Amino acid sequence: MVKPIKNNSEYENALERAYDLMQQELAPESEASDELEVLSILIKEYENVHFPIPKPHPIEAIKFRLDQMGISESKLSEILGARSRKSEILSGKRKLSLAMIRKLNEKLKIPAEVLIREY
């Protein structure tokens, strides 16, 4: 029976069980498939509470997304509106405006909650 994960020992056991289930060819809608789904949700929740991943720095998020998408920094100038503005943003001399955050969110799909962080 699957139970809530309350400590590291139970967390480790849940990880082992999930790994074992993932090694099998599970039929959709099977009891084992449902168990894996529930375990995954419990593991994720335990990790979110006990091992939170901090949100990235806004400028690092922009650079990472550009790299990830294979876009040059010159394309960022087009998104932000001016070459000098891009340089000021990436160097940290200028903060992102609300209009810039909206454009970056729309064009690069960077979550607004990352871009509005204090830096």
TrEMBL record:
Highest rank taxon of the organism: Bacteria
Protein name (record): Transcriptional regulator
